[in-house]
Design brief:
Elements (H helix, E strand, L loop, with lengths): L2 H22 L7 H13 L2 H5 L13 E4 L2 E4 L16 H10 L14 H4 L4 H11 L24 H8 L13 H11 L5 H4 L18 E2 L2 E2 L16 H10 L9 H9 L6 H13 L15 H13 L1 H4 L25 H9 L1 E2 L11 E2 L8 H13 L10 H11 L5
Antiparallel strand pairs: 1-2, 3-4, 5-6
């Protein structure tokens, strides 16, 4: 686990221990059960990812810049510090921020804070999170959250945005579905806010609801389609495959890298198995697309060149047949991400290399070296085109211009 995650959960243990002691002495009005429930809801909501600067040893103290298409937004301090955090906020103010997108002064939050998803939680859920946050170490850290350039810094414009894209209200179970399915839907659409990364956005930053969870582009990565689509989604994975991936960051097909690795590290690996199973049940129930592209012929020049590069550079780890090594080297032949409509993540991994996440269940974090200096844009395009159309797969070819775009975009990125 990264040091940030270790610090956060060490802080949790200390806070909960203190809460138990206080309860035993009847000096703390907060119930231990509420605090523990709030801790788990904070895990489900992945609060640490945005509100903790990695390796800062200051859980929830804010200051992390969140990249958006409109500029960077700096996450605020949510420790109980009374001056720079939320220590002086009322319960009503906290609930309004989390579920309604309203700051204590009445101005509007930007949807980088996923209140559009958190609205599906109940007030009791949100106040449990508040009870937990009250137990973490207060940190004095003043954060300027108004960092967007004009005209995006005009928060009153969020009234229009909310009218277009914000549907306020708690999650309503579907009586035609099982309790497990409904739990999964609540977790995905509510605290988990999966659509924030996996649903494509309009030019205004709102969800394209007709492409729900079909993958998107953010922060230099293309997120995966997580619907039940058998070609580019998770439809070919079993529920056990999905649970293993979310719990350990690895399964026999894939390994979590990039933003997903952080999510696994700070959030999903700490979820209960029943909740992970509920998420898997819900995601696999979502209909996929019906498009089935034609594979490029083996005689295509890009396929010929790509096959040669693959044998020389990739087969030692991923195998001649592209099957990889279970829970160590991903299976390219079975990877839905490799066949994704947007090849950005695949290009980025070839150019920059990647390291998968280390978790409690799978502490080894295998890495892939960078090929950005060894292969030029045309060669990277060729080998990816081969991967996307080999072993019975089919996907649009990758062009050298696609690789050049990603190479340029990632050149300034530290990760």
């Amino acid at each position: 686990m990264p040091s940030t995650g270790l610090t956060i959960f060490t802080s949790v243990a200390i806070a909960l221990s203190a809460a138990v002691s206080a309860k035993a002495g009847d000096s703390d009005p907060q119930e231990f059960t509420q605090i523990e429930r709030g801790r788990y809801l904070a895990v489900l909501s992945d609060c640490a990812s945005c509100h903790t600067v990695p390796d800062s040893n200051q859980p929830f103290a804010g200051g992390r810049a969140i990249e958006t298409p409109f500029g960077n937004i700096v996450a605020p301090n949510i420790t109980p510090d009374p001056e720079t955090g939320i220590g002086s906020w009322s319960d009503d103010a906290f609930d309004a921020a989390v579920r309604k997108g309203l700051r204590p002064n009445g101005s509007r939050l930007y949807p980088a804070m996923p209140y559009t998803a958190y609205t599906k939680m109940s007030r009791d859920d949100v106040l449990a999170i508040r009870a937990y946050l009250n137990t973490v170490t207060p940190v004095r850290n003043a954060v300027d959250a108004d960092t967007l350039p004009f005209p995006f810094n005009i928060r009153t414009a969020m009234r229009v945005w909310n009218a277009l894209y914000f549907n306020r209200g708690e999650y309503k179970p579907d009586p035609q579905k099982s309790a497990e399915w409904n739990r999964g839907a609540f977790l995905v659409d509510g605290p988990g806010h999966c659509g924030a990364c996996h649903t494509p956005k309009t030019f205004l930053g709102g969800d394209k609801s007709d492409q729900y969870l079909r993958g998107a582009f953010l922060q230099g990565w293309s997120s995966a389609d997580i619907t039940g689509d058998t070609r580019v989604g998770v439809g070919a994975w079993s529920a056990e495959d999905l649970v293993a991936y979310l719990k350990s960051g690895h399964n026999h097909v894939s390994a979590a890298t990039g933003p997903m690795a952080e999510l696994v590290s700070l959030s999903t690996q700490h979820m209960t198995d029943p909740d992970l199973k509920a998420i898997a049940t819900y995601l696999k129930s979502l209909p996929g697309r019906q498009d089935r592209p034609q594979a490029l012929p083996k005689e295509d020049p890009a396929m010929v060149a790509g096959a040669a590069i693959y044998r020389d550079q990739c087969s030692a780890c991923h195998g001649i047949e592209g099957k990889g090594v279970a829970e160590l080297f991903p299976s390219i032949a079975d990877s839905s991400m490799v066949k994704s409509d947007d090849p950005t993540t695949s290009i980025r991994i070839v150019l920059r290399g990647a390291r998968s996440v280390g978790t409690q269940a799978q502490p080894t974090a295998p890495g892939m070296p960078s090929y950005g200096r060894l292969l030029d844009d045309a060669q990277v395009a060729a080998v990816l085109t081969y991967m996307r159309n080999g072993w019975g797969a089919a996907a649009a070819p990758v062009g050298a211009a696609d690789v050049a775009r990603v190479r340029s975009d990632t050149a300034w990125r530290p990760d």
